[in-house]
Amino acid sequence: MKTFYNVDEDYVNEMLEGILNAYPNMLKKANGEIRAITRVNAPIEDKVSIVTGGGSGHLPVFMGYVGKGLLDGAAIGNVFASPSMNQMLTLTKAVDGGKGVLYLYGNYGGDIMNFDMAAELAEEEGIQVKSLLVTDDIASGEKGNESSRRGVAGLFYAYKVAGACAEEGASLEEVYQTTQSALEGVRSLGVAISPCTVPGASKPSFSLGEDEMEIGMGIHGEAGIKREKRKTADEVTQKMIDLLLNDISIDQGEEVSVLVNSLGATPLEELFIVYRKISKILNDKSIKIYKPYIGRYATSMEMAGFSITLFKLSEKFKKYLDHPVWTPFIKER
Fold it and tell me: How far are the Cα atoms of 104, 117, 165, 288, 329 from residue 158, in angstroms, in the given order?
């Protein structure tokens, strides 16, 4: 694997330094901790603070969504590794504006352990914290056992809803309940055709034959549903949409937002070929697409592949999708 970085152990800190140097008018370190990044105007008084965190290697997740209309902060771990309890606690204290903090992150064991400890310590200091896990990946748990699933690109929709709701002045409980309700209508599924290599590793995270693909591959290389011969864009898209619609009930005339996400190496041109097929499938089923997102939203280093996320909409959630946001990686007036 040919790459451009310096020393393995400096990979994450130098990446963060670069982003902070590029966007000093939008982001800052929390109390000098480079692994805890906040929006530049944090803390914001009398607003619920939304924070997230997780391993590096997934840009723009996590701190690419720190900014107006989305997140107040993000704690950043090593590549594919959880941030520490202390980093999350530092972040929590830096963003608290007096109205409580919502931890909003993917369902991964290391994150849960460290974030739960940080929440306990924050509450001892008088900061009210609630935690909500994103579990949108249908490949990682059976239908009916959604709480066991991983959080993947559906994080984006969680951030959109929580961020907009918080900026409307809602209470911590209201932001929590609204975002939880939104997540009940979010489902994702990915497909990979090549692995990624973590800095410092001697080999890729997994192997796939030149003519193979894996449906349901996780963003850290976790095993998917099935490995099989590569199919055309239309064929694999049809299969993925069928699996998604089998997992969530969406009736004729209802509306969804669609996110077609590159896992890192797959170019925009191919994502639009995928979206072309999605739009035809949903149109034939009389399911309306309100607002599509196509691009890099939750990646896995240089993995080749893509994911599809469906978000079942209500009028309230449509309004939250339209709420203006302004961060280093997403700007919507």
Answer: 8, 22, 11, 21, 16
